[in-house]
Amino acid sequence: MALGWLIAGIIMIISIVGIPxxxxxxxxxxFTLWPFGKEVVNRxxxxxxxxxxxxxxxxxxxIIWFVVAGLWxxxxxxxxxxxxxxxxxxxxxxxxxxxxxxxxLAPIGxxxxxxxxxxxxx
Length: 122
Fold this sequence. Notes:
Elements: H1 2-15, H2 19-33, E1 39-42, H3 43-47, H4 56-86, H5 91-105, E2 110-113, H6 116-120
Antiparallel strand pairs: 1-2
Helix pairs in contact: 1-2, 4-5
């Protein structure tokens, strides 16, 4: 799935129109490789102020993302979650794929943090 995210990011860069979504693709590709001990949080909760991705343009970008790529990547993560749940040893990985399936649907305005609880209490 990390490879899928990398390919999506490269396609976004090549298309030029998708450059705003490319950064999210690369961040989530890295998150897919090692999701344990990390959570996806809203950038507004970390920074305390809105930016272009957490405002109205972020909502529009997430809607476009959902239709073009988000739904398909989420289905891929759900498939791998199901495949991991079949085996006992893969159950923790299945839960991580479910976490990744949620972020697939609307990644703009989000970031990956090691300990979101400490970041939110600033």
